[in-house]
Amino acid sequence: MEIFGIPSPAFFGQLLLGLINGSFYAILSLGLAIIFGLLNIINFAHGAQYMVGAFVAWMGFTWLGIGYWWALILSPLVVGAVAVLIERTMLKQLYKLDHLYGLLLTFGLALMAEGVFKNYFGVSGESYEVPELLQGGINLGFMYLPIYRAWVVVAAMAVCFSAWYAIERTSLGATLRAATQRPDLVQALGINVPVLLTATYAVGAGLAAFAGVLAAPIMQVNPVMGSNLIIVVFAVVVIGGMGSILGSIVTGLGLGVVEGLTKVFYPEASAVVIFVVMVLVLLVKPAGLFGKQA
Amino acid sequence: MNAMTERQRTFALFTVLIVVGCIAPFVLYPTFLMKLLCFALFACAFNLLLGFAGLLSFGHAAFFGGSAYITGYLCRDLGLSPELGLLAGAAFGGVLGALFGLLAIRREGIYFAMITLGLAQLVYFVAVQMPFTGGEDGMQGIPRGKLFGLVDLSNNIAMYFFVFAVFVGGFWLIHRTIHSPFGQILKAIRDNEPRAISLGYDVARFKLLAFVISASLAGLAGSMKSLVFQLASLADVHWHTSGQVVLMTLLGGLGTILGPVAGAFTIVSLENLLADKVGSWVEVIMGAIFVVCVLLFRRGVVGEIGALFGKKPAAGPAGH
Fold first, then answer.
1. Which of B111, B281, B295 lies closest to A119 in CB terms?
2. A42, B110: Cβ pair inside 8 Å?
3. Most buried pick, A59, A185, A192, B9, via CB within 10 A?
4. Which parts of chain B have pLDDT scores under 70?
5. What angle do CA B102, A276, A154 make, to 5 degrees?
6. C-alpha distances in angstroms, B212 versus A45, B91, B102, B220?
C-alpha cells in the first residue's frame, strides 16, 4: 500500500514520529505557558530541566537500580525540588523587574546545568532501556507500532489534558488564573500568592522533567538534548501564541505532525519547517494562532 | 557637575581610545586584540538595540555569522577586495536585519526575543545545508587580501590597524547615533513607549531603523572576524553566539557607551585564559556570570563605576 507514492509503513512511521515529537513540544510548551502565565518569566532553563529529568532517570537506574516507573514519579519531584530552590533564591527577586531579566537568568542557569553535565557525561550520550512492560510492538497491517512510542503519546496527552482540566475546570485553576490577573486582590482574599508562584514554577519544571523521563528510552540521554529542543519549543510558543493552555497543546502536537510529514515529502526542510511556519504565522497573525492581540 | 562639556568629553574619550588602540598591538598579541575588537564592535552594535532601544534580540548571531559567510564567499570565491567584502557583509547584515526587524517588531518583550531567536535558527539551518558554507567544517582559507590593492593584510600589524580603524569607525557611528535626536527618540521609546507614541512618533519605524543599524554593524563585526581568522564557521551563527553577546553587554553595562567594550574584553580574555585550563567548565563559568550579573549588578561593570561617581545610571530595559 502506498500513500502519495510513499510506502505506507514509512509514511505512518514518520507520522508517529511526528506525533511523538509533537507530544514533547506540547508538554514543554504547556510547562512554559504555565510558568509564563503566572510568573511572567520565559523559562529558558526549561530545556535544561527536561535534560536533567532524563539524566535523573538514567542515574537512578544505573547507580541505584531505580526503574522506569519510579523514575516517572521521582524525577519530576527531584527537578521540582531544585526548581523550588531556584525560585525562592533567585527568580523571586526579579518579578518586579523587566521580563528580560528572568529570561537572562534562566538562560544562565541552563548554561550552567548543561556545562556541568557535559563535564561529567561528555556529549556522546547514554542509552536507557525501554521498560519491560512496554517492549516490543504490534503489527497493525499498514505499519509496525512499537508499544513504547504509543505509550509516550498516550502518557503525554494524558498529562497535558489533566493539566488543562486542572487549570480550566477546577477551583484551584480558577485561583491560579485570578492570580495572573490581580495578584494583589487574590492575596487580599487570604491566598498565599508567593507560595502559589513557587509551586507553579516547580510544577512547570516537573512537567519538563516528566517529558525528559518519557524521552529517555527513545532519545539519547545527553547534555544538549534540551537546548536543541527548547529553541523549537520557543518557535511553537510563538506560533501558538501562549494565549491558552489548550492552544499550546494543540499547536505543539500539530507542529510535530507537520514536521513529521515534511520529513516524508521533503526531508531537507524538516529542520526548518517549524521556523518557516513561524514566519508565515507572524506575517498573518503577529499574536500567534491562539494568542490575544497584544 | 563635571567641568567638561559634552563635546570635550567625547573628544577625550576618542583620544584615549585611539592612543590605547595604537599602543596595544605592541604590548599584547595582535590576533587576540583583533578578536577582541570584533567582539567589542558586535557587542556595541547589540547594545545600541538593547541598551538604547530596549529591544532584546536573541538572534544577533545570524547577522554576525551570516555576514561572515557572505564576506568569506565574496573574498575567497569571487576574489573581492577586503574593503568591499566588509561593506558587502555590512549590507547583508542590514538587509537581513530589515527582514528580521519587520517580523519581530510587531511583538514586544520576550516575544520579540523568541522571534529573533527563531529567525536566527532558520539562518543557522540554511548555513548547515547551503553548499558554499562548508557545513560542519566551516568555510576555510578566506584570504585577507590587499587593502585598496596596496596594503598586504597578511601582516598581523597591518591587519590590526585596519580592524582597529573599522572598529573606531563603527564605534563613532554608534556614538553619533546615540547622541543624535534619533537616539533620544530611541531612549524615549525604551523608557515609555506609549508616551512616545502619544507624542506622535512612528515608533515602529524608529525601532526598525535601530534594528537595521545594529544588524549591519553586527554583520560588519562578523565579516571582520572572518577576515581576521580566515574562517567562517557554524559556531558564529549558532545561538550560543547570540547568548554570548548578550552576556558581554550585560556584564559591561547595558546602555553605557563603553560597557560592551569592557564586557567583550572580559569575556574574550576569560575564554582565552580558561579554555585550555578548565575545559568545558568555561560554559559553567559563563552561566554563573550571567546569574551573578542579573542578580547582583544589573548595571554592569561600567554602569556600576558610573554610579559610584554619581553619574546618572543609564537604565537598560526598564526596571531600575
1. B281
2. yes
3. A59
4. 1-3, 149, 310-320
5. 130
6. 30, 10, 10, 12
